[in-house]
Amino acid sequence: MRANITVKFFLKKTQQKEFKDKIMGRIIHNRKKSEFATDIFILESDWNKQFCRSTRNEGINQKLVTIESEIYKIKERLILEDYVVSAKLIKDVYFGDEKIQFGIVEFVNRYLEKKKKAEIFSESYIGKIKTIKRLVKEFVVKNHKSKDLPISRLNYSFITSFDEFLRSQITEQYKLPYSQTTIYKHHSFFRTILIQAFKEGYLKKQPYIDFKLRKVKSEIKYLTTEELTRIEDLELMKNSTLEKVCDIFLFSVYTGLRFRDAQRVTIDNIDNSNSTSDFIITKQEKTNDKVEIPIIIPTKRIIDKYNNHTDRIEKGKLLPTLSNSKVNMYLKVIGDLANINLKLTHHVARHTCATTILLENNVPIEQVSKWLGHADISSTKVYGKITKSRLNLTAKKLNKNY
After folding, report:
1. Beta partners for 130?
2. Angular region, 373: left φ>0, alpha ψ -120 to 50, beta rest
3. Do the Cβ atoms of 261 and 285 come closer than 8 Å?
4. Confidence class of residue 285 from pLDDT cuts 50, 70 and 90?
5. What is the value of pTM for the model shown?
6. Residue 281 burial by CB count (10 A; 0-12/13-18/19+): exposed, middle or buried?
7. What is the DSSP letter of 376?
8. What was the pLDDT predicted at 365?
9. 358 Cβ partners below 8 Å, 6+ apart?
10. pLDDT, tens digit, for every residue of 246-282?
11. All domains of the chain in start order, with CATH
């Protein structure tokens, strides 16, 4: 993105230099300005306000042209080096700072812009950086009564205060304090950004080196076969929204797709070249990795159900289009109707696919990993906890042998 700047000169009254005024410079970018003093003095009567030049002294005018030229060169260099250009940054570089000094919020914003420019990161990933930018900005304003702070002030004390700030935050959707998992994820993203600042020499020490992130092993929440049957047996035809939400949930139970991936899947993602089974072939938004998922009977039943739906006809979507927050809101109602004690969210569907649909039907963990689109099998092993029902199946097999 090009950075349009304007350089103007004006006079400032002074008591020295034989009644001459000092020539000041002003750099303007995006309606924000940064002013600086030159070492040039001139009589007010010799100054042309319209053209910001001397009417008599070409030597002065040449100096002003040189200053202007240097400032524009700095702007171009900053753009080439992927800095987020500002009037203040240009001024600081012009006055000879060996290392450009960023503000904390400014550096996070620069990191965000570079990731966006790369065009290889998912909307979800960019959204998480935007969230960090918002939280850091709110924290600096609230705790330091300032729009930004020099990045050099980022230390252990800053991180501990930021941790307290995160613990005071309330989620928009559920109006509850951030969970330890959410706090851990925000810290992890911020730490990644600060490691980059350390690598580039803006920090002398990594602030997180003494701050221990406490990761909570969250319990994998999934539906049992009995609970899943209760949801599938619900009569929801009188409420079309509940019926759609239920189908969106069940689609991910049998495909393992995350919400955003399931909502993006179209009829073009179906590959029926295989003689034994059709496949959904798509890319995951989170990792940008390809995933190939067999279409089993319950999945096909849901797909066929919406052959004549508006979203299928107009957009080719396999499923009706709804927001994640709306789906989770209605899943609470569905959970109550089915007498499910577990807090039902869409992501429970993915966990249920891994555990109840695949592992409890003795699908090898390597295949489960492939089904879910995990790049590393270690990500799949969190589902490998031996459930009571799997132990029962093993016991039955052993009893037959004896």
Report:
1. none
2. left
3. yes
4. confident
5. 0.62
6. middle
7. S
8. 86
9. 256, 367, 368, 371
10. 999 999 999 999 999 999 999 999 998 876 789 999 9
11. 5-94 (no CATH), 104-209 (1.10.150), 225-401 (1.10.443.10)
